[in-house]
Amino acid sequence: MELLVAYGVKIDEEPGTSLLDQARGLREDGWWQRLGGKYATYIAYEIEAVELKNFEPMLVPGLLQTESYAREVNVIGRETDQETIDQRVSARMTRQEVLRRKPTPLRMHAILSEASLRTEVGGPDVLREQLDHLVTLSRLPNVTIQVLRFEAGAHLAISSGFALLSFERDEPPLGYIETLAGELFLESSGDLARLSAAYDNLKTLARSPAESITFIKELSKHGS
What we know:
The chain has helices spanning 2-6, 16-25, 37-48, 67-74, 82-95, 114-118, 124-137, 189-205, 209-222; strands at residues 51-56, 107-113, 143-148, 162-166, 174-179, 182-186.
């Protein structure tokens, strides 16, 4: 407020009110911090990222999930408390806002294994809704989806999914892997080079974006 007065900016008019609102917002914790742990740290990085490359072998990536699909994922051997499940689902839906943020939405390139599209999470109706949602999201100019068909065979990431986050300016990229033993952040140039090589390998093996969406439409229409 002292700076606004010094510069002759009226506090009760624009841009004074906007600047004050931003200043107040700096005191508040991000919504993701309530989740705690490395998951919250990853979301914070995700919000700051300009590009995300994501491979998932068994499930649809969180940023591309419907609410029904996300709810089913969060009850699989993890939580039984309804309030905790609701919080996690709400957080996942809020995360997805990065795909439509203004003025620069997150650029996302996702490679989904065929298994992730055929696994009936929540049953056939939930899966069909999820497949249709993928088709809708693929129409966004910042979202690219490729499908890795079974016929592609073995590949460099056969054992787990992973994410590669890129940031603005000179900030280094970040790798992220979820395991049964916990989440891992990868920052060394060697680890990042291996992840990038694996992703490039998957991108080459996967069907083109156009062929992938056609395949997803067929799965939705005729069932998995």
